[in-house]
Structures are given as C-alpha cells and as structure tokens.
Design brief:
Elements: E1 2-4, E2 17-20, E3 29-32, E4 36-41, E5 46-51, E6 58-62, E7 70-73, E8 81-86, E9 95-102, E10 105-115, E11 129-132, E12 142-143, E13 146-153, E14 169-172, E15 180-182, E16 186-188, E17 194-196, E18 198-199, E19 212-215, E20 219-221, E21 237-240, E22 244-245, E23 262-267, E24 274-278, E25 283-286, E26 294-295, E27 302-307, E28 315-319, E29 325-328
Antiparallel strand pairs: 1-2, 2-3, 4-5, 5-6, 6-7, 8-9, 9-10, 11-13, 12-13, 13-14, 15-20, 16-17, 18-22, 19-21, 23-24, 24-25, 25-26, 27-28, 28-29
Length: 331
C-alpha cells in the first residue's frame, strides 16, 4: 500500500491518491482517490482504509485484496480527523483500533475499536492458499542467494487465516555477481565493476616493488547470502607489489579535507551548500557539497548555528562574543 501519483515526478501530497501492489511493488493499482491510512487485519485477509485529510466516520474494508470495497460507519453522528489507525503489529488480530479528534477540539481524543470477527466466518485451509514468489512464476527470483516461496491466500478465498501455519520454503541459488560486494579499498565504477582505489589491503607490509602476491579480487561475498556453486568472485588474484590506483582516471572526483571534531552542521535545502562548526568554534562552508571548503569570517569564534524551519535561504550564526552575530538570507 502507498500514496502517490502517476507521472514523471512526485506532486504535492495534497494531490496524491491511494494505491495497492500485489507483486511487491512491481506494479500498482489505484484503489481510492485521495489520502488514506490503511491497516492489515488477520495477516492481510481484511484491508481497512480510512480517509486521512478530512473529517469522516466511514471506513472501507476489502476481503479480496482491494478488488471490492465495503463501507462501514464507525460513528453514528459525529465525524473525526483520523490520528491513528492500527492493529496487532503482527496483523493477526481481527480488531482495528481508531484514534481521532473532533473538528475544532484537538485535545479531545476519540477512540473506537472495530471487530471484524463476523466478516469472515470460516477458517482457511490448505486449498485456500497458493504459492507466491516475489517476481512471479515465470522468472527466477533469487535474493541474497536464495529464492523464497510463500503461501498467499487466494483472492477469492472467503476465510480468515487465524493460526493456520503457512509454509515458507527457501531454495539456494547458484552464486552470481549480485551475491558479491566490493572489498575494502575498492569501489564500483560507472560500469558496475569493483576497482581498486589506493593500495590493495592484502599487500604484505614488506612487499618489494615488482614482487607478486595473492591480492584481493576486489569482491567479497555478502555475508547474508546463502548462494552455492563454483562461481567465486572473491578468489585471490595475482597482483604486483607497488601497484595502486588513486582513481584519478575514473569518473569519481575525490578531495581530502582535514576536519576537526564537528560540533554542528547542516545543508541548505535545494542547494549544494554545506556548513559545519568544529570544536575550535571555527565555521566552514562548502558550495559544492564538500568538495572544497573555506572558512567563514576567519578569526571569528562561532558558538551556534541556527537554521530557520520556514525560510530555506536564511541562517543565523552566533559568536562567543554575544554582542556579535552573522546571518545569511541567500544560502
């Protein structure tokens, strides 16, 4: 479940609608116009929606993954602004708990408990479930070295899960490149390959220039991957002592800047400007996201950075000398 919009970019939240995905986010379906909060009851057998941005006394619930929606009025005469819609954290309860407040009376909280036990009267059996994988039936879906198959309730099964024990089957996959990450002192270049940045960490300390040693391949297996097979990206490779790569010919630009202990820092929103205050009360600014730094009012001792929560371009800088302060209105 999620709120959002269809288009090339995210619009303001006031223009968002409520969507549902049945394939782990691969595709989405519009289920309700406007903003809604949601909760899963009985491990997803019942999905509950309540409108989020307007006074209401109506909830919507579905027993078939959002294909159809039923309406239920949880308050007789009054309406509330929703504050919380929740249930058992494991989604095993048949109750939905609602907290809200009446329009114009924010301090007066209303609580409602809705029982869905009479909606689904039969407990699910084995025939009410189907096998489900993250990427569907036609594509191999290996993640962290194994493929997981779940039991998901069928769309048309009118039953509650309750304490029915659903099986989760994990099957190891053959190792591939996605089961490996870059080793220490290596980084992924624009083509996705792990390349050396500096000296290989496995180079012996007393290694003479020109000697050969067993160095890192640049890869190491992800610790939580359970993949098996003969594909091993992390097997040692022969390297020559003295060889190193500073990354100067890569697409990555790197500059080192010695920073003393940081006391405070922040970004100006919608800009590349970054500032920090060190333990010596010195203030520094970077206008290219940390690539280059320069002091602010060299020789002055600053004590505090105050960022405006409303005006993105404004910031105030107080000094140890309480009679002096600085501010900016243009980042």
């Amino acid at each position: 479940m999620g709120i959002g919009n269809v288009g090339p970019y995210l619009t303001d939240v006031s223009e968002a609608d409520t969507y549902m995905s049945l394939d782990a986010g691969l595709t989405w379906k519009l289920i309700k116009r406007g903003l809604h909060s949601w909760e899963f009851i009985d491990q997803g057998s019942i999905i509950v929606l309540i409108e989020d941005d307007t006074p209401t006394n109506i909830l919507y619930y579905s027993t078939n993954y959002g294909q159809d929606w039923n309406e239920y009025q949880f308050l007789n005469n009054e309406k509330i602004y929703l504050r919380t819609l929740t249930s058992d954290p494991n989604s095993k309860s048949m109750y939905a708990f609602i907290l809200g407040y009446k329009p114009g009376r924010i301090g007066e909280v209303v609580s409602i408990s809705v029982n869905f036990e009479d909606i689904l009267k039969k407990q699910c059996g084995k025939s009410d479930f189907e096998e489900w994988k993250v990427f569907g039936k036609s594509k191999k879906s290996c993640l962290l070295g194994h493929e997981t198959t779940y039991q998901r309730k069928k769309v048309d099964a009118e039953c509650y899960v309750g304490d029915f024990e659903r099986k989760v089957v994990k099957e190891n996959c053959p190792c591939s490149e996605i089961d490996y990450e870059c080793d220490y002192s290596y980084w992924r270049d624009p083509y996705g390959k792990c390349v050396l940045d500096g000296v290989d960490p496995k180079q012996p300390e007393n290694c003479k220039k020109g000697d050969v040693f067993n160095g890192s391949s640049g890869y190491r297996k992800i610790a939580s991957s359970t993949c098996t097979g003969s594909f091993k990206y992390d097997e040692p490779v022969k390297r020559i002592c003295g060889d190193e790569n500073s990354g100067e010919n890569s697409a990555v630009i790197r500059k080192e800047h010695q920073i003393e202990e940081i006391e405070d820092w922040f970004y100006f929103e919608d800009s590349e400007t970054l500032m920090y205050l060190n333990k010596y009360y010195e203030l520094f600014i970077s206008r290219n996201e940390g690539l280059d730094w320069e002091p602010v009012q060299s020789g002055e001792k600053f004590s505090t950075i105050v960022k405006s929560p409303i005006h993105k371009e404004f910031a105030l800088f107080t000094t140890i000398n309480s009679r002096t302060g600085y501010y900016t209105v243009d980042k």
